[in-house]
Amino acid sequence: MRGEQLKHLIIGAVIAIVIIVPLGAFAFVNSGMYDVGASSPHTKFTSWLTHETMIHSVRHRADGRTVPSRVFSGEVQAGFCAYEAHCVDCHGGPGVARQTWVSGMEPSPPYLLDVTHRFTPQQLFWITQNGIKMTGMPAWRNSMSDEQIWQIVTFLEAMPEVNSARYRQWRSARFCSLRPAVASLDTARR
Known about the structure:
The protein has about 190 residues and is mostly helical. The chain has two domains: about 1-35; about 45-190, Cytochrome c-like domain (Cytochrome Bc1 Complex, Chain D, domain 2). Helix content is about 55%, strand content about 0%. It has helices at about 1-30, 45-60, 70-85, 90, 120-130, 145-160, 165-170, 175-180. α2 (about 45-60) crosses α5 (about 120-130) and α5 (about 120-130) crosses α6. The radius of gyration is 23 Å and the shape is elongated.
């Protein structure tokens, strides 16, 4: 008799999982109960779930990518200019705040001053190239070459060594419009 009860319990659990859970999820989605407004933060569970999913997805997809050999000072120069053109508004820079409209984004784009402690160069390349769904982080693969994306990664690797005064100096000197004629930024690393 006990085996028969266990069999019925298992069948009931399978029916619940196969039928009731999807119906509950469907009802929840259609109820409009979940606040999708960017003006309110995600629940702790939603934040955890989406962040962990992103971390593991990036690690999985970036594995095996080869980091090209790079000429450091030239890549940092080009990466600074690409970062200024495409990234600084959302992510800020050393001593440079993000644009005020970024505070209306959920989740808020992270500052990238220490991003190399959390992601490998391959992972940073993948994130920049492919973007992150539901975060506002665009995929740059259609508007930037792989070389330009690697230049941004090189700049991100150098950014912890660039103090705020140096970064603001590069910005105010309009370095990017003069880039071919300007001396190496590698002196900032000394």
